[in-house]
Amino acid sequence: MEGRLEREAGTESWWRDAVIYQVYIRSFADGDGDGIGDIAGIRSRLPYLAALGVDAIWVNPWYPSPMADGGYDVADYRGVEPVFGDLDQAQALIDEAAALGLRVVLDIVPNHTSAAHPWFQAALAAAPGSPQRGRYFFRPGRGHAGELPPNDWRSVFGGMAWTRVTEADGSPGEWYLHLFDDDQPDLDWSDAGVRAEFLSVLRFWFDRGIDGFRVDVAHGLAKDRTLPDLGVDEEGLLRAPDRSSHPHWDRDEIFEIYRGWRAVADSYDPPRMFCAEAWVSSPERLSAYVRPGLLHTAFNFAFVRAPWQAPALREVITTSLRTHACVGAPTTWVLSNHDVSRHVSRYGRPDQRDQTAATDARSTAGRIDVGLGRRRARAAALLMLALPGGAYVYQGDELGLEEVVDLPPEARQDPVWVRSGGRERGRDGNRVPLPWARTGPSYGFGPAAAWLPQPPHWAALSVEAQESDPGSMLRLYREALRLHRELWAGAGELRWLDLGPDAVAFARGRGVACVVNLGAAPLPLPAGEVLLSSTPLEEATLPSDAAVWLRTRPA
Ligand code: NOJ
Q1: Number of folded domains in the chain?
Q2: pLDDT tier at 477 (50, 70, 90 boundaries)?
Q3: Which of 157, 181, 339, 356 most suits a substitution to test ligand 1, by most atoms within 8 Å of the C-beta?
Q4: Which whole-number Å values give the CA distances from 184 to 157, 162, 284, in the listed order?
């Protein structure tokens, strides 16, 4: 099999047009039968991923963790959570993936540690003002007896961003900052030891042969250390800051940190890469993260936020390409991930304006048209994979999985659910373990029942069921990824085609075009050979909510 790894071995540019498959490890494949996905499970499915045709995998955090936030609460950055495996298995995965032409990207979580991390435990045991507390944000409270939090910042997961500790002598003590769960204390990146530690962690994994890191909360590391009140009464995971100088999101001091990280990545042969998870206010702000000498790529969440409407999609594509081109970086397209509602469900919502809600508002849950969403998701896949730049596929996108909206409350684990007192359903609905087979206690996910219950109708969406159906989402993705390498990767800039207000249509490089019809009426197609379509075509028209790849000129 000729993966891009072999074709471009030794170059640093693979990430410019790579398709990277996101493995949410807890829900991908369970190798040891405890109901939770693991490294053994990923290893057993590497041939599936290679055959799917992706270039790389990004694995969500697999480090030792109390799992207060699905592993984004890291207790040891140089280890592997025993539930997932061990370092030897991690090494085997990296090596086996490379042998199949797949690169491996891990997830680094620098904004906060777990409360179980030895640093935080040492901080709790140490006195106010100690160097141990200096790695985090410990502050005295306000009010007569320090009974009020130091400022009004809110946790992204709900409630206040501060928790008060009990000092060694048993008295109520300082407060510490946690922009996420109270088990995820924020690190103070002005501390030299914190900076040095993460450079060392990067090297630890780069030395083991991984190809890059996805950077968690990349926009959160720098804080205004005067900790001014914000005057907001809510935070949200997907919320972008709405002012230019925010005290804890998207501050310019962050970039100096990434300059140091880039130097480490560039010191390797081949150089390693980074992808920023940064929820910022505009494509311009996002492009600041991928300027020369900083991070290589950044998820384009404006694309996730865009409604299924032609003007909005044209606008987000144009703006993203322009702003990234200004800094010489590729755009990185994404439709779904483990934090947002699956796009099959988002595109099936009656109201297309709110694309970001991590949870489908209960009021609209019953009105989601999953069939329509799935039809649009097929078209969206062809749109995304034809665009210049890289793309991420979230596990299950290739099966057309929808958000599971009716998980029983007792099964839910997302801290969003707990901290909001059940008002927000949280993200468990996009993390339901994959169905691999038509039958079995977890539809082939593993030998036992899965940690979150799967809907019985997913038997028909399983890999096994879709393999044998030429019209399935899986077969569409496989063909699209095969053609992606041939037609679109490295095909150069996009030229818009004017096919009317309801079309998103463009041509690239070697005489190929992508046309998406977002209107209600069939769209007449330009002359050309149909290479792939999201739905069967009759005559020279494209039905509503469908996409096609055309060769407009002979090869
Ligand atoms: C972003 C991650 O994608 C999300 O899952 C996590 O809860 C937060 N960062 C906190 O680490």
Answers
A1: 3
A2: very high
A3: 339
A4: 11, 11, 30
